[in-house]
Design goal:
Elements (H helix, E strand, L loop, with lengths): L1 H9 L6 H9 L3 H11 L11 E3 L13 E6 L3 E9 L6 H19 L14 E8 L9 E3 H6 L9 E5 L7 H19 L3 H13 L4 H6 L1 H8 L5 H34 L8 H4 L5 H11 L4
Parallel strand pairs: 3-4, 4-6
Antiparallel strand pairs: 1-2, 2-3, 5-6
Helix pairs in contact: 6-7, 10-12
Length: about 300
């Protein structure tokens, strides 16, 4: 039993776990309609057929795993971006880029040319940020002009409504609670499969995304698990870069010291390889060229 727990603990959860579930959850048109009605309860005539996902991949170099675009008929474009539990105003820049790309693809899809005199038709944008962390004193709305330009009247503006956890039993709120449960479990069990399975069990017991988790438990676990997650890859890359930078700095220091020794007549070029084996033949050749200036 302990051995099984150990093996479970050794499997790491994906850094983008909540992001992937965010998109997978709303691939189901039933859930997508529930999301839309949470934002627009007054639209009682809305149906699943009116909604289409227009999520864009690879708008930025690191992909937009947790961004969801929804077209409601041809009149409304909803963009929802999950800010995760780390508060950042950079999400406004993502919205700006994402919105531009969404409109670009919309005009292509509807065969509308921006280079003709006839005015194009475009859906009205609605921008939302889903924040899964603690609200504190964070605002209901965030804007590009306020956060990046001190509230100046700039020529382009982006405003987004921020959605926090509430006492409403909506699918968005259930997703936020799911994220918070996952955060709690990762604090206790680390980024492991144990944290994932415990999150699913707790949420089902609390009727949080119960139907979704019951139907797609295996898929959710697969989505959330990876032997080599993005975070681990980035940590390894950062360590490699730091190691290479340290080696480069150490070699530059060694070369400077060797040049000082040569200048002071303490060592000859021919003796460098014996005293400093870490220097390559190219390093020694470069040192020799610089040492000629002392002659």
């Amino acid at each position: 039993m302990q051995e099984d727990a150990k093996q479970v603990g050794e499997i790491r959860a994906k850094r983008t776990a909540k992001n992937s579930v965010f998109l997978d959850l709303f691939q189901d048109k039933k859930n997508l309609l529930a999301l839309y009605k949470t934002l627009h309860p007054e639209d009682t005539d809305a149906t699943e057929d009116m909604l289409d996902i227009v999520t864009i991949d690879n708008v930025l170099t690191d992909n937009l795993y947790n961004d969801l675009g929804i077209m409601v008929g041809n009149n409304r474009l909803l963009l929802l971006l999950e800010a995760q539990s780390s508060w950042t105003m950079n999400i406004l820049i993502r919205i700006l880029l994402y919105l531009g790309q969404s409109y670009h693809e919309y005009f292509e899809r509807t065969s509308q040319s921006l280079y003709k005199s006839r005015k194009v038709k475009m859906p009205k944008p609605e921008l939302y940020v889903i924040y899964t962390g603690s609200r504190g004193r964070k605002p209901d709305t965030i804007s590009l002009s306020k956060e990046f330009f001190g509230g100046e009247d700039i020529d382009i503006e982006i405003k987004a409504k921020v959605i926090y956890e509430s006492d409403k039993d909506s699918i968005i709120n259930q997703y936020i609670v799911f994220c918070k449960v996952f955060n709690e479990q990762t604090k206790e069990h680390g980024m492991t499969q144990m944290a994932v399975t415990e999150t699913i069990n707790i949420c089902r017991d609390r009727d949080i995304l119960k139907d979704y988790l019951a139907k797609r438990e295996k898929e959710v676990i697969t989505i959330m698990m990876s032997l080599f997650d993005d975070e681990q890859i980035m940590k390894t890359y950062a360590k490699d870069m730091a190691r290479e930078a340290a080696k480069k700095a150490a070699k530059e220091t060694t070369i400077k010291n060797v040049l000082v020794l040569i200048k002071n007549g303490r060592i000859s070029v021919e003796e460098i390889a014996s005293f400093f084996p870490e220097l390559t033949s190219d390093d020694i050749e470069n040192i020799e060229q610089e040492a000629r200036q002392f002659a």
